[in-house]
Structure formats: C-alpha cells, structure tokens
Amino acid sequence: MRLSKGVQYILLATLLFAFMNVLVKQVDRIPAVEVVLFRSAISLVICLVSLRAKKVSVWGHNKPVLIARGAFGATSLVLFFITLQNIPLARATVLHYVAPIFTAIIAAVFLSERLRWWQLLFFLISFTGVFFIKNFDDEIPLLYFSTGVISAFFAGCAYNCIRKLKTTEHPLVIVFYFPLVTLPIVSIASFFWWVTPQGIEWLYLLGIGLLTQLAQVYMTKAYQTEMAARVAGTSYIGLLYALGLGFVFFEETFTWQVLTGMLLVVTGVILNLFFKNEPTIREKVSKIKS
Known about the structure:
Order of helices and strands: HHHHHHHHHHHHH
Number of strands: 0
Shape: globular
Structural class: mainly alpha
Strand content: under 5%
Oligomer: single chain
Number of helices: 13
Number of domains: 1
C-alpha cells in the first residue's frame, strides 16, 4: 500500500512532535506558558525569514480563520504542555490522541466531510484503545486527564481551521499566525510565572522551537493535501513514538493492558488507511476477491 503525500507528511510531523515532547519534559522546572513563549518566539522569527525568502505576504487572506487557528492552537498547546510536564510522556500523548476524534467530528459538521459508518467504527477501535490504556493506569490524576482532553478538543478545532484555509493560504502563513496570536498571550502570563532557564535548558528550549516549527509545517501540509479524517487517523501512530521514547528516555514501562490498548490504536489506523479511498467496504472486498 502506497502512502499518499498527506499521510507521509503527518507521519513525519508526529515524529518531530514526539521528540519535541521529550524536550518539554526535560524542562519541567519551567512553567508551560514560558516554554510556549520561547517556542512561539523562535517560530515567529523562522516564519518571517522564510516568508520573506519566498516573497509571500505574511498577512494572508482569510484573517478571521487564521486568527482563530492561532487562538485554538495556543490554548491547546499550553494545556498540553501542562499535561505533559505533570504525567508520563506516553500517558500525556494518549490523552492528546483524543484530538483526531474531535477533528473528524468537527470536520463532518462544519466542513461537510463525509464520514462513513465503517470509518466511525475504525475510529472507535482506536478511541477504545486510548481509553483502555488510561483506565488501567493509576498515574493520571483527574486534573491532568481533564487538561489533556480539553487540549485535544482545541487541537481538533485548530486542525479544522487549517482545512478551511487549504485553498487560500500558504502553509507558512498558517504556521505564522500561531506565534503571532500566541506571543502576546503567553508574554503576559510569563511575566507572573517567570523562571529563568539555566545551562542546557536554553538548548532544550531552542530545540523545542526548531522541532515544533518543522512539525507544524508538515502537519499543515498534511491537512491541506488530505481529508481531515484520514490525517487524524494516521496521526495515532504518534502513540507508538511516545511509548518508545518514554521507555528510552524516562524508563516508562507498560502493562499488558497498555500494550493491548496500543494494538487497538494501531489496528484502527491501519483499517482506516486501507479502506479510506474506496466508496464502500463491499467494493473493496470485491476487488480483493477478483
């Protein structure tokens, strides 16, 4: 099975986000809003330089949706970083992977993207895997479970804004509006909770900004070139990245229940990819038989 460009983009984006998450956990001494501040400042500079080099206007065309994308993304990122800094890496990622469910539902309601019954079933399989992991894990307090889920909802809103902008905006313009909207908000918040980075923390913060910038570009391309539901389903593969990196960098271990949940997530993704381009499952099965 050959992967489309959109799927390739989201696989690379999720890998970059996974390594970014590792760095965020390395600076858990620094408040989440301050981490987002550094990340946004770096992204803003890179976007401006890139847009100037490509001679693309930074302001875009559909400003209301661009601003909404930035606001949704800012809210989601701050809440996710709070979650990530307070619970193990793989667990935080599991909670964030409710986002594709929200993304697909919102796309169906507001963007008129069709969801067939079997596609919903495949999402349900993945969604069951996510909550199977959570329900057998005592390391997720209710507070951070809530911030993780709310973060996922706002991420779903942001992803659909990207879909809405697919025909009018350059990918870098969409990425640019994230730090443009985020910086004023987190700058005010950081004034009250500032903690000065020390030593290697400066390098970690730089890495967070660079990795996130690259990931944002590829994620934006994915949502601009592929149906939102398919990209949303494929992004579940990031859970595998999180489980592996959590084990390597933080010695996070998994019970058989967690591994079962992981299998359910991957199964839902593979089934969604296999059947997505066909009108019905019956037609797909007929082609296989013939």
